[in-house]
């Protein structure tokens, strides 16, 4: 599965949609009880228009499964992609979306398509909006299903209203933190924060490159993530740079934010292996000692005589 799908599922659901465990007589193993497709609707819409989409829900169990669907607002927080859900009826997304069915029963292994109608008001500010369509199984009140009674999954709805005008600076890199001197190629901490300055959602695709004074550039694609309007998103990585050689590098962070626009930041980095660092340290100490002896030979001779004779 592509990286963007994995990231989208994690970001949209973020651990809320745990499907739990089914208790068995001899073993307890996590089991999915239903699946949905797609996990995300990334839509570009226009005021006054009506759109239709479909979502597929499948029962993975070998028993009939009652299903309940609902639409909730998806309120995004800054930094770590935190979120809140609300059933406030005044929410734009909730009032736009109509589901052809909200309560039904899926037979064992059965799939069902849900028709989604999205009606956009004629007067609405341009920008990005988001909501979520929850799919919740209603399980029998039996012990083997007790941990799954409140389990639910959801499909994220991202709606960009109006034409997404080109912006010279739709986003900016707020911070780009990485050690200046590296003594190891493993578990290198990397943190950077990006702010979406636009009114719309977009997907950010980071690429980290190491440009040495001599040799070829090494590039590492990083996790692709959605940025919500006006929000800040933080990436935290632990990198293994197996192909890195000792030397000085210009480290470049380039992020594609759509419409052919890239934002970037750069800084210098030095990679010194531990063995080389110890050797250089010893050489530097020797050089300092030689220079000191050459500048103050009498004082050094007196100091050595005291050490040898004890007076």
Automatic annotation (TrEMBL):
Signal peptide: 1-27
Keywords for the protein's UniProt record, in alphabetical order: Membrane, Signal, Transmembrane, Transmembrane helix
Top-level taxon of origin: Bacteria
Membrane-traversing stretches: 275-294
InterPro entries assigned to the protein according to its UniProt record, in alphabetical order: Ig-like_fold (IPR013783)
Gene3D superfamilies assigned: Immunoglobulins
Keyword match Membrane: yes
Designated name of the protein: DUF916 domain-containing protein
């Amino acid at each position: 599965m592509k990286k963007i799908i994995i990231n989208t599922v994690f970001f949209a659901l973020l651990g809320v949609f745990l499907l739990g465990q089914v208790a068995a007589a001899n073993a307890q193993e996590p089991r999915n009880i239903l699946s949905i497709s797609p996990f995300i609707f990334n839509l570009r819409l226009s005021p006054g228009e009506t759109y239709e989409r479909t979502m597929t829900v499948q029962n993975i169990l070998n028993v009939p499964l009652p299903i309940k669907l609902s639409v909730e607002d998806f309120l995004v927080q800054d930094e770590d992609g935190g979120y809140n859900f609300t059933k406030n009826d005044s929410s734009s997304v909730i009032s736009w979306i109509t589901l052809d069915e909200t309560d039904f029963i899926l037979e064992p292994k059965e799939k069902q398509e849900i028709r989604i109608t999205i009606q956009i008001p004629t007067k609405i500010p341009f920008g990005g909006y988001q909501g979520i369509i929850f799919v919740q199984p209603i399980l029998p009140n039996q012990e083997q299903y007790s941990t799954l009674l409140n389990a639910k999954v959801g499909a994220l709805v991202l709606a960009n209203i109006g034409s997404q005008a080109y912006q010279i600076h739709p986003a900016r890199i707020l911070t780009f933190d990485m050690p200046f001197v590296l003594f190891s190629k493993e578990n290198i901490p990397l943190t950077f924060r990006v702010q979406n300055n636009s009114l719309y959602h977009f997907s950010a695709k980071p690429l980290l490159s190491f440009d040495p004074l001599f040799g070829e550039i090494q590039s590492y694609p990083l996790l692709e993530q959605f940025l919500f309007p006006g929000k800040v998103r933080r990436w935290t990585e632990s990198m293994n740079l197996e192909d890195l050689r000792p030397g000085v590098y210009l480290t470049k962070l380039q992020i594609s934010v759509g419409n052919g626009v890239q934002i970037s930041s750069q800084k210098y980095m030095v990679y010194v292996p531990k063995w080389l660092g110890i050797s250089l340290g010893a050489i530097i100490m020797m050089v300092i000692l030689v220079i000191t002896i050459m500048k103050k030979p009498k004082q050094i001779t007196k100091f050595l005589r005291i050490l040898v004779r004890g007076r």
